[in-house]
Amino acid sequence: MKVTDKLVEGKTLFSFEILPPQKGSSIQSIYDAIDPLLDFSPAYINVTYHRQEYIYKKREKGYLEKVAVRKRPGTVGICAAIKHKYNIDTVPHLICGGFTRDETENALIDLQFLGIDNVLALRGDPIKTEHVFVPQEGGNKNALELVEQIMRLKKGIYLDEDVKNPHPLDLCVGVAGYPEKHFEAPNMATDIHFLKKKIEAGAQYIVTQLFFDNKKYFDFVVKCREAGITVPIIPGIKPISRLSHLTFMPKFFHVDLPESLSSELLNCTTDQQAAEVGREWATLQCAELVKAGVPSIHFYTMGKSTQVAAIAKAIY
After folding, report:
1. CA 28 to CA 32: how far, in whole Å?
2. Are 69 and 54 in contact, with CB atoms under 8 Å apart?
3. How far apart are CA 141 and CA 143, in angstroms?
4. Comparing C-alpha atoms, which of 207, 208, 209, 204 is closest to residue 231?
5. pLDDT one-digit tens code per residue, 136-163
6. Per-residue model confidence as pLDDT tens digits over 36-88
7. What CATH number has the domain bearing residue 209?
8. From CA 158, how far away is CA 77, in angstroms rounded?
9. Containing domain of residue 34, as a range?
10. What sign does the dihedral 223-226-229-235 (CA atoms) show?
């Protein structure tokens, strides 16, 4: 079932995102993260995609060999496994980085064969060895181009013009939004300008980057509506879970922490205390969001469900 079909149910849905396990790990870690959250009837589960990166290994005589690695493979397989085991709809992330258009098309075909009809279209981050995002040769340069490719497939237009009797792919496409703007955007107006282009191209809903100040989400929704964006805008929530998040969250996700939250965290001396502060803060955030009638709350679990389960128990 498509995400947008679920969003018309008239209540605030519960959904969450998981990461594929490290290469060599069992899928059981995924099931262990999902099981505690089943009581809250997740409407769908997102699975992130992690692109191929490169490391240099020393060889004989001091030579360095560039070796491709993927530390978290298996997004499509995990989506299929979740759907098979739990009968819960999944939303695989699809990124531009590391994919040619041919590979993107083949991945989308695989998803349809597996009965997965949702996808979150993202540009993706630069790899660690790059200061800026560099698209794959023959790949999409940004999320807009990715959405446009998916829309062509929805019309049965494949890259190979010789495909006979082409079957349209029936996919629901979501994209990302940034209540505090994407860190590469010069300003919020420009960021929303390009977000609107993705919606005009055919994307059907927006899920936001995490935030800790609901006012920024509400202001973002107002700005989107003023720009003519009418699709559902789903807030993304990630509770603080350790002391290091006080500096990690702003640096890695390019978001601000409200002064009152940072003050509470500065008074913590253990990760357990920080996690309790994070749980209480996120619970208050979610209660206000539900009261405002948001279509869904999407939790970034990072593979750990204890905090999210406690928040969901208080809210749903």
Report:
1. 6
2. yes
3. 7
4. 204
5. 889 999 999 999 999 999 999 999 988 8
6. 999 999 999 999 986 665 555 667 766 666 555 666 567 989 999 999 999 99
7. 3.20.20.220
8. 23
9. 3-315
10. positive
